[in-house]
Amino acid sequence: MKVLVNAGPWLEVPPAGYGGIENVVATLVPALRERGVHVVLASVGSSGLEVDELISAYDEGQFTELQKPYNQVMGIAHAHLARVAAELRRRDDIDLVHDHVEVVGPAVLSALGGPPVLHTLHWDLRKHPAFYGAFPPGIAVNGVSESQIARAPDALRAAALGSIHLATPLADPPADREPRVERGEHLMVMGRICALKGQHVAARICQKLGLPLVLAGPVSGRDTAAELDVVAQNPYHPLHSHPDVRYHLDQVAPYLDGDLVRWVGAVGGAERDDLYASARAALFPIQWDEPGGTAVVEAMALGVPPVGLRRGCLPELIDHGRTGFLADSEEELAEWVLRLDELDPEECRREARRRFTPLVMADRYVELYERLARH
Ligand code: UDP
């Protein structure tokens, strides 16, 4: 089967550091190929992922262009889409398009009358009514958690072909991947620094309990404290009043004065894995209905128990009391943090190996492809 996987023009695959959708694609594609799927990846030229074919409209990721005016952003999106459309018109051997970008583009591709289109929903759907409120005809969709689908606008919920949980290569048999790092005392939040991820809640809890906390993640695409300083010091910088920048400066930075809470910027690759694996627990004080939770399954795969608020996909991923803890309030979250000794990190690894490996995810997608593909 030949599948055109559309990862969009915004970041290379795999991404150098942060990159939610691109990380998912980088996890899925090798497992699809292991199952014999021929993958044509639509991304940017600098993508390093091993694929059967790579097509692109841009040499480099266009992520920073997302700050530009709407028309320019749409121009980039359209140029990428036109490249994909040209490919589909040029050849007739593609069985299915698996889109990860947004829902309007795939509807246009579907209208070309080529192969069927499957779009995977990655976002919190209620937050993007412009894209998802009016669901376009012609495409199949799946979600990344039951909770995401349950909260979707009616038409979308009715059309969805179920959900497939996210996966991580870290969940693959860890025999040759025994923890390289000692477990430390610190707790960790791994994710974009933004109000939705709730780093300030983690900081408040850790300060109250006197526990060390490490925060890793970019602030609005800025990966280091030095880069962010440039934005923070210059009130005329276009990002100066960006909500994530304001959140960091106003709600997170005040906790960074003492010794307990550290922000290490964005981390990637082995550095990220080691930093994560050395944590005692991963905190998810999320302030939204997290749709997929890659960072949750990564923590489990590394034997780091996730402890989070009972929202979004978290109850589907975490078995409370066995593979992590779920809390209904900040106070309760703090109480569970004090009971981490009751959890067995090995149980987290086992669960990840059973449920969250790339092949588990790829097998579910191959099933869906087979249902949808034209033959
Ligand atoms: N991430 C990373 N470096 C960082 C912070 C996050 O590589 O400094 C990765 C993290 O490991 C995960 C992804 O970014 O793979 C975040 O995905 P998640 O689904 O948790 O959050 P979202 O897509 O909402 O940002």
TrEMBL record:
- Entry-linked InterPro entries: Glyco_trans_1, Glyco_trans_4-like_N, Glycosyltransferase_grp1
Keyword entries, A-Z: Glycosyltransferase, Transferase
Q: Where is the Glycosyl transferase family domain?
A: 187-345
**Annotated Glycosyltransferase subfamily 4-like N-terminal domain residues:** 18-126
Pfam families cross-referenced by the UniProt entry: Glyco_transf_4 (PF13439), Glycos_transf_1 (PF00534)
> What protein name does the entry list?
Glycosyltransferase family 4 protein
